[in-house]
Amino acid sequence: MGNSALSLHGPIGVQDNRNELINGDFNIWQRGVTTSVGVTGKASTTCLQNSFVADRWRIYSQAVNGVTAPPLSIFRGLMPLGYPSGADRASKWYLNIYVGNTVDAMGSDLDGTAYASYGGFTGAGALTNGTYLALVQDIDDVQTLEGKTCILSFWAKSDITNQRVAPVLKQCFAGRTAGDTPSLIKGSTGNTGFTLDNTWRQYKTSFNVPSVIGQPAVGTSGDDALQLQLVLHSNGVHGASMELGGPSEQASLGNISFSQIQLEQGSRSTEFDKTNPMTEVALCQRYYEKSYNLDTTPGTVTTVASEAPTTGIIKRQNVVLAPISDGTLSKTTGVHFLINKRTVPTIQIWSCRGGLGKASNVNEPLEVDIGATGIGHSGFHTGSLINLGWNYFYYTADAELSVDTD
User: Fold this and answer.
1) In this structure, is the dihedral angle defined by the CA atoms of residues 223, 228, 234 and 240, taken in order, positive or negative?
2) pLDDT for residue 13 is more than 60
3) How do beta strands 389-398 and 254-265 pair?
4) Is the pLDDT confidence value at 106 over 50?
5) Contacts of 394 (CB under 8 A, 6+ apart)
6) Can you say how many angstroms the Cα of residue 53 is from the centroid of all Cα atoms in its chain?
7) What is the pTM of this model?
8) What's the Cα-to-Cα distance from 346 to each of 60, 100, 333, 363, rounded to whole Å?
9) Phi-psi label, residue 377: left if phi above 0, alpha if psi -120 to 50, beta otherwise
10) Cβ neighbours around 284 below 10 Å, total
11) Could you tell me which residues are beta bridge partners of residue 394?
12) How confident is the model at residue 340 (pLDDT cuts 50, 70, 90)?
């Protein structure tokens, strides 16, 4: 019996895995479903905030000398049933950026200040070169889509009058020799981008990605990437000029929302590629993994099963239980990741009481110091522990790309 065209990929059937982006539907938020961001440029310096929000997505905010960027709150929003209206397939979640909190990321009350009700960058030089804000994803491997035409499609809305978004691609060669600059690729919409309104709409722009043939070899850091930036504010960076919150002196508080972001090869966009949930989690865990439940923010005070094992090491209710000592012999614990990491990760460990670098002892509320040793792509050891009984702890393993943005 011949194969049905329905099962074929490529020119005849719809091809799976078309989206070069991971978590473009904002389903996975391992670091927590809410993040606060605020940054003020200090004298004679440029300060930035580079915070991961939904998995694989980060907010990059940059302020020049003395300039204050508005506080932001980035959170997972619940999409109304059937939305985005007009999309081929509905979504459950979206990413929302609230601009201009009345309390900044450091907890300082902003009421009564010049920018308590102002959504833009403020201070001397706020509208000069160097202020910048973008939603960013780094796609592993600078050779992604090289020499190809590709198209970006996304759904967005904003209740801020005249808020714009400008998509930009950048080929990042992982810190080669001094003087090398990334290849900046502007979309068909150029520097001006799109002006959003308060209705979910789909926006599209195409890119011609340069070939990397003839380029010097990438640097040795392993962090080469094709970078997508959705620019929300820029004065001089990438030659663009657009203001967060709308035009100067009118910038206001409000929301900017994104859903179903897809970057794919070709000159025509296709329906959004819904990834199998198990596959999507695994793709995210190659870069970042935790032993908490998916919706539990690392460092949260939480409990574990009361029953401890008698030998070996197990995971019970997502917590690692480790033998400590029998009174005469120190022991170590091996932790195996669910997914091998892209590179050797950075490990952080928390006790069940939220203590960083601590493990909860079986004789709670006792906590003991703990650290990771022998870290590799597939796991780590906790090192020697000195208290009798069992310890239990949570961990995160971070193997994200480290790529310049501006």
Assistant:
1) positive
2) no
3) unpaired
4) no
5) 290, 291, 292, 298, 302, 318, 319, 320, 349, 350, 351, 352
6) 5
7) 0.86
8) 21, 32, 17, 29
9) alpha
10) 21
11) 350
12) very high
